[in-house]
Amino acid sequence: MMDERLQNEIEAAAFRRLVEHLRNHPEVQNIELMITADFCRNCLAKWLKAEAEARGVELDYETAREQIYGMPYAEWKAKYQTEATPEQLKAYEERQKRKQEQASQ
Fold this sequence. Notes:
Structural class: mainly alpha
């Protein structure tokens, strides 16, 4: 059994690999991540900000997004973000509806 410090190091390394993977695949749109995995790069930034603040570290959202995207969000959006297709928007809305239905059960 590993100690908590080592577990935290492993989890942090895995998180960094996930962020690097997403940076290396900007063709994967946030809407696609939201449809299939129910999280996106912006969610990761929000989680990073929340965890920093839970530990008494001030981290504004834009700085957190830059840590995730590897550049200012506006720059990433201009370079890589495409307009969501009607099919993607429909799939996203259906995903949200299913989540609401599950939550109400």
